[in-house]
Amino acid sequence: GAMMDNRFATALVIACVLSLISTIYMAASIGTDFWYEYHTLSPAENVSEAGRSIWEEFVSKDADEKTYTDALFRCNGTVGLWRRCITVPKNSHWYSPPETDMTTNCISFSLSDQFVEKYIEPGNHNSGTDLNRTYLWRLQFLLPFVSIGLMCFGALIGLCACACRSLYPAIATGVLHFLAGLCTLGLVGCYVAGIELLHRKLPLPEDVRGEFGWSFCLACVSAPLQFMAAALFIWAARTNRKEFTLLKAYRVA
């Protein structure tokens, strides 16, 4: 039996490591601002004059989606799940040569921003609510937390399992990780769909390139890790149970 036990122990250790890495990746991707990046190819010489007003509009409480998206286009913006950032010249009150010091300034989405309706024409609240984009945005805000929550809950059950020296709870841990993986996949899907729909409404200007950033990639990597951990937890629990039943039958015989 020792040989067998080693195999399960190894599977469980690997599953725990995968689970830990994916939790760290998820937390990092929620906390960073590089889900989507805009690269403004023509440098912002014109921003120094308009910089102050762009910045004031960008940070104002009532900056609507169109206002801040235009600012993101014009100033090498990056967007996270929680914050949006633009790069503007440090001393934007004076007209200064284009090679001025640039500084990146960020503003957080407030909770009400996360749940506010999106309009069919961004920035025009008479155009009616765009339900698709509104719900995609709410989901991309909630799903990462559900995903992390499921994994932490799974970890707690796993710890109890170790304490009780029982492998049955490992199946529950596996199932929770599987659900967490589905949430992460859902999050990635919602984010991509939301960006696509936004850019259909507000197309990128000629001289602006957009791409998914590394925070987004971390979430993409996190999902398969969660599924692998889930598979290992469930495999270890099921195979071990079979071995155990066989052993009992053998003893009885």
Molecular structure report:
This protein is α+β, with helices and mostly antiparallel strands and 253 residues long. The chain has one domain: Butyryl-CoA Dehydrogenase, subunit A, domain 3, CATH 1.20.140. Helix content is 65%, strand content 14%. It is built from 7 helices and 7 strands; from the N terminus they run H-E-H-H-E-E-E-H-E-E-H-H-E-H. It is elongated.
Mean pLDDT: 87
| CATH overall fold name | Butyryl-CoA Dehydrogenase, subunit A, domain 3
Q: What order do the SSEs take from the amino end to the carboxyl end, as H and E?
A: HEHHEEEHEEHHEH
Radius of gyration, rounded? 24 Å
CATH class: Mainly Alpha
Integer count of domains: 1
Summarize the biggest pleated sheet.
Answer: 5 strands, antiparallel
Q: Percent helix among the residues?
A: 55-70%
What would CATH call the architecture?
Answer: Up-down Bundle
Main location: membrane
InterPro entries: CLDN1, PMP22/EMP/MP20/Claudin
Protein name: CLDN1 protein
Membrane topology: Multi-pass membrane protein
Task: Describe the SSE topology.
Layout: H1 2-31, E1 36-40, H2 47-59, H3 65-74, E2 78-79, E3 83-89, E4 102-108, H4 111-115, E5 119-121, E6 124-129, H5 131-164, H6 168-201, E7 208-212, H7 214-252
Antiparallel strand pairs: 1-2, 1-7, 2-3, 3-4, 5-6
Helix pairs in contact: 1-5, 1-7, 2-3, 5-6, 6-7
